[in-house]
Amino acid sequence: MTITQLKYTLAVAEHGNFTTASDKCFVTQPTLSMQVQKLEEELGVVIFNRSTKPLQVTEIGQKVLFQAKKIVEESSRMNDVVSEEKGIIGGTLKVGIIPTVSSTLLPLFLNIFTKKHKNVELKIEEFNTETINQKLEDNTIDCAIAATPLNNNRIIERPLYYEPFVAYVPNHHFLAGNKVLEVDDLSNGDILILQDGHCFRDQVLNLCSFEDLNKQYELKSGSFETLINLSNNGPWMTIIPYLHSNNLSPKNLENIIPFQDPSPAREISMIYSKSQLKLPVINALMTTISSVIRGQIKYNDIKIMSPVN
């Protein structure tokens, strides 16, 4: 039994067929099939029912895969132990990131980081906060960038930056023309919010009670761009994170109104399991993000209230 055999078997289970699994593992399909078959012969069990389409895992195969995953994870952690001891910045880093952060933050740091750290392979995927928590628990990602605090005593939260909220108020809205807004002003406006599952939605609702939102309609979306377009063509306004305003057209940027100091804001942190061993790479990623964000959010010009949960 080898680690390679276990990795190939897990790949087959993940992708549902041998051909796709071999492509993902960068080996020929016969080579991968032979290694999986050798594992089955050594164990004396059938892991995959090959007569079904798509491929199905047998009952005993489920148990084998469960152990195989643990073995492969622990073998990779051996390399992490050595890398941490030597301070090596290299290897694969699997990063989760919440959708309301990825579109504005990734373009700021990704190219800079990959050029500086050519030995690091970043695998970044969007997840909501609940999924990120689960993936950190089962070690399918190494770290994540998310809004905090999460109140999870099994993970470490290291703040990267504090991002103020700003109001997007079209010129036909009754709040248009204000130089600044106060949080209390939100109780009088028709506010469009993100759909369920986004932590930013919950943060906005904590600023203004749901009872203050118009009950005649309920318009929700998964993107700030949609909320802005709807606001431009209706009686609404919306709330967006500060960095999203940097991507607006000059015309739409005129509709941004900041909040009175101290501004409501969200805390964005790097989070990872307390048992995480890839700290040299995570620290390098944090350093890059912190360096680029300083030029985007001028903290000297913005006073921030306690982060909105």
Characteristic terms for this protein:
elongated; two-stranded antiparallel sheet; 309 residues; 11 strands; alpha/beta; 11 helices; nine-stranded mixed β-sheet; single chain
Described by the principal axes of the CA atoms, the overall outline is: elongated
How many helices in DSSP terms?
11
* Helical content class: 40-55%
* N-to-C series of helices and strands: HHHEEHEHEHEEEHEHEHHEEH
pLDDT < 50 stretches: 210-218
- The number of distinct β-strands equals 11
Structure classification: alpha/beta
Please indicate the percent range of residues in DSSP E strands (runs of 2 or more). Answer: 15-25%
Query: Biggest sheet, in brief?
Result: 9 strands, mixed
Overall mean confidence score, pLDDT:
84
Radius of gyration over C-alpha positions, nearest whole angstrom: 24 Å
- How far the N terminus sits from the C terminus, by CA atoms, comes to 48 Å
Describe, in short, the structure shown.
This protein has 309 residues and is α/β, with parallel strands linked by helices. The chain has helices at 3-15, 18-25, 29-43, 59-86, 99-116, 129-137, 199-207, 224-232, 242-245, 250-253, 279-293; strands spanning 48-49, 56-57, 91-97, 120-126, 143-148, 155-168, 191-194, 220-221, 237-241, 256-258, 265-273.
Describe this structure in words.
Helix 5 links the parallel strand 3 (91-97) and strand 4 (120-126). Strands 3, 4, 5, 6, 7, 8, 9, 10 and 11 form a nine-stranded mixed sheet that branches. The protein is an alpha/beta fold and 309 residues long. It has helices at 3-15, 18-25, 29-43, 59-86, 99-116, 129-137, 199-207, 224-232, 242-245, 250-253, 279-293; strands spanning 48-49, 56-57, 91-97, 120-126, 143-148, 155-168, 191-194, 220-221, 237-241, 256-258, 265-273. The model is unreliable at 210-218 (pLDDT under 50). The longest helix is centred in the N-terminal third of the chain and has 28 residues, at 59-86.
